[in-house]
Amino acid sequence: MIVQLYSIMNKKDILQGPFLGAHVSISGGFENSIKQAKILGCHAIQIFSKNQMRWSASDITDQAAENFIEKRETGKIRYLLIHDSYLINLGNPDETKRARSAAAFSDEIKRAKKLGAEYLIFHPGSHLGIGDDACLKLISDSLKSAVSKENPSESNLMILIETTAGQGTNVGYKFEHLAKIIELTSNESIGVCIDTCHIFAAGYDIRNKESYNETMGRFENIVGLRYLKAFHINDSKTKFASRVDRHANIGEGFIGTDAFRFLLNDSHLTVLPMILETPGGLNAYKKDLETLSGLFQDSSYM
Ligand SMILES: [Zn+2]
Ligand SMILES: [Zn+2]
After folding, report:
1. Where along the chain do its domains lie?
2. d(Cα 57, Cα 38) in Å, to the nearest integer?
3. Three-class SS state of 152
4. CA distance 193 to 209
5. How far away, in angstroms, is 232 Cα from ligand 1 center?
6. Sign of CA dihedral 280, 23, 49, 66
7. Phi, psi for residue 171 in degrees, rounded to 5
8. How far is residue 282's CA from residue 40's CA, in Å, rounded to a whole number?
9. Over the stretch 8-32, which tens digit does the pLDDT of each residue have?
10. Which among 1, 109, 127, 273 is placed 20 to 30 Å from 88, CA to CA?
């Protein structure tokens, strides 16, 4: 099924969606991510540009970047997304720790530019006791200065705020939080990535047509669809509004397959990259991609 879908895409135009993809590993070198995309038949991938559990990494050499960009072209990867380090908290109330996060985030922008990525995805942050509003202000300040310092638009890089499940003291679990950061930073390089598992766990239902339309309508009213640039497509191991972030394979969680059918066939969204971050490695990704391809029914692509 998936092979069929992509051969249809290639025949028409590679710039048409849906751009299904997956978060793949860079272990052994950046170009290994392209090999995995090829195995999966994907034209969109997400990677970490360094070990996501470490603060620092050696700089990406010109040679490594050139090699990667060349391989990416051969592999016809339309969208490259980079996910930032899990350690970064741009809204940390401790000034020293926040400065460390800001420096690491600047480095993430540099690396994403060097690799020619379209999008750098980040989790907004955790308030650690100071409350959502104060944290959103700190995040916006950190983001604003990182963007003005590193100028992502120079290489057409956009920074995407990811929706969160609202676990612990994480902010970003309400669409209003994303709108606030966008308003306070007021920069054309800022957009949004919706994670289906996260919004579901945060209390935005998408399981039937009515709830899907309502949730997307709320996003349009509060944030604006023009800011929506990417999706993480994950089912959820935890129940609706659990505020707990645990990804499940497609159709094996509490969201179920209908939501993904609405998403894949939503004509506003088919040009956007849709990245799996589901458990189980390449074989599980293959199965998830097959499931998703089977849900895609828009006859205009046939
Ligand atoms: Zn995600
Ligand atoms: Zn998650």
Report:
1. 2-10+22-54+82-296
2. 27
3. helix
4. 21
5. 5
6. positive
7. -100, 170
8. 8
9. 444 444 456 789 999 999 999 999 9
10. 273
CATH architecture of 2-10+22-54+82-296: Alpha-Beta Barrel (3.20)
Nearest to 290 by CA among 246, 267, 257, 241: 257
Please enumerate in sequence order all residues whose Cβ is within 8 A of that of 80, keeping only pairs 6 or more positions apart, or say none.
44, 45, 46, 47, 72, 115, 116, 117, 118, 119
Whether cis (ω within 30° of 0) applies to the bond prior to 279 is no
Ligand nearest the Cα atom of residue 23: 1
User: How far does the centroid of ligand 1 lie from the alpha carbon of residue 243, in Å?
Assistant: 14
What residues pack around ion ligand 1 (CB closer than 5 A)? 195, 232, 277
The model's pLDDT over 52-71, given as tens digits with 9 standing for 90+, comes to 999 989 999 999 999 999 99
Ligand nearest to C-alpha 200 = 2
- Dihedral angle sign, alpha carbons of residues 22, 123, 121, 5: positive
Residue pair 259/231 in contact (Cβ under 8 Å)? The answer is no
C-beta separation of 53 from 88 below 8 A: no
Q: Which ligand is nearest to the CA of 194?
A: 1
**What is residue 298's predicted lDDT score, i.e. its pLDDT?**
55
